[in-house]
Amino acid sequence: ELVGLNFPPTFALLYDEAWELWRYFPLPEGFEGLVPTLDLLLFHVDPRKGDAGFSPHRDRQPEDVKASFHEDGTPKYVTRWIA
Asked: Quick check: 24 and 16 in contact, CB under 8 A?
């Protein structure tokens, strides 16, 4: 309904249900120690209008990319994509 009322999709973060998604989708086994960025954005992707999502990428890419990984090569933080 937010889109129909011309509100940005990110306004959905005002509702508890949006935050419940974070708890509903646990991190995969072996990734429990990652720090969530909590840089939250929501998008309305309407395929009827020819909209499309994004290709896979890593958000919050720092200048020192190597510093964003542990010595064993695993990442220090995680982002979640929910479609």
From this structure: no
Q: Which residues contact 17 (CB under 8 A, 6 or more apart)?
A: none
> What gap in Å lies between CA 22 and CA 47, rounded to an integer?
25
Q: What is the pTM of this model?
A: 0.59
Distance from C-alpha of 45 to C-alpha of 74, rounded to nearest angstrom = 31
pLDDT in tens, the chain (83 residues): 788 899 998 898 899 988 888 777 777 777 777 777 777 788 888 888 998 887 777 676 778 888 888 898 888 877 777 76
